[in-house]
UniProtKB/TrEMBL annotation:
Keyword set, alphabetical order: Cell membrane, Membrane, Transmembrane, Transmembrane helix
NCBIfam families, A to Z: NAAT family transporter (TIGR00427)
Membrane topology listed for this record: Multi-pass membrane protein
Protein name (Swiss-Prot/TrEMBL): UPF0056 membrane protein
GO cellular component: plasma membrane
InterPro entries xrefs: Multi_antbiot-R_MarC (IPR002771)
Source taxon at top rank: Bacteria
Family: Belongs to the UPF0056 (MarC) family.
Compartments where located: Cell membrane
Pfam families named in the record: MarC
Residues forming coiled coils: none
Length: 213
């Protein structure tokens, strides 16, 4: 019973930590903005691929993160700088708003097929939003110096978070229909501003770690 309690406490700690970092609710406006030109089938496809890719990223770094960093000479600070730049650009574009004319020129009047927009599922949805430096670092720290049971718990917890995120993405349109497009637009711009600030903070933290100041 004591062992079970320890595993349960560990799982609860991992869940709360990863949930706070991933924050799937805050990712809904980003998903809605980036997939606003897609049909329902394409949105579901992108939602599925984004959470699967994010899960694979966390799995790889949880199992062999230190080895990957060592082989390629990558530091966590460099990852934070790069992730910060990406997050800032995403937030800036959300605040600025999309260009409807350019959008229509690129996509035309035909619905977007499921295979189009896969880059959106990879970046920014899977990484750095769902599997960014924070999530990678947290999963690596929880998995390090632990047995396979703890690693399995970390991956199971992150899988649950990915499934919750998928459900929120799929319910995005319903959420918009309830709160209205104007409110959603305000939320999107607010989240864009927050993402831009988070990007700057990640970038600054990465620079501080790189140059030790």
């Amino acid at each position: 019973m004591s062992l079970f309690d320890n595993y349960f406490a560990f799982a609860t700690t991992v869940f709360m930590g990863l949930l706070a970092i991933v924050n799937p609710i805050s990712a809904i406006p980003v998903f809605m903005e980036l997939t606003s030109y897609m049909d329902k089938k394409a949105k579901r496809n992108i939602a599925t691929k984004s959470v699967l890719i994010a899960f694979c990223i966390i799995l790889v770094f949880s199992v062999a993160g230190k080895l990957i960093f060592h082989v390629f000479g990558i530091t966590l600070a460099a990852l934070r700088v790069t992730g910060g730049i990406l997050v800032f650009v995403i937030g800036y574009e959300m605040v600025r708003g999309k260009n409807e004319n350019v959008q229509s020129e690129k996509l035309g009047d035909q619905p977007v097929k499921a295979d189009q927009g896969i880059s959106v599922a990879i970046t920014p949805l899977a990484m750095p939003l769902l599997a960014g430096p924070g999530a990678i670092t947290t999963s690596m720290s929880y998995s390090a110096a632990k047995d396979l049971t703890h690693l399995a718990i970390v991956m199971a917890v992150y899988a649950i978070i990915c499934y919750i995120t998928y459900l929120l993405f799929i319910a995005g349109e319903r959420i918009v229909s309830i709160i209205g497009t104007n409110v959603m637009m305000v939320i999107t711009k607010m989240m864009g501003l927050i993402l831009a600030v988070i990007g700057v903070q990640m970038f600054a933290l990465g620079l501080k770690e790189l140059f030790n100041f």
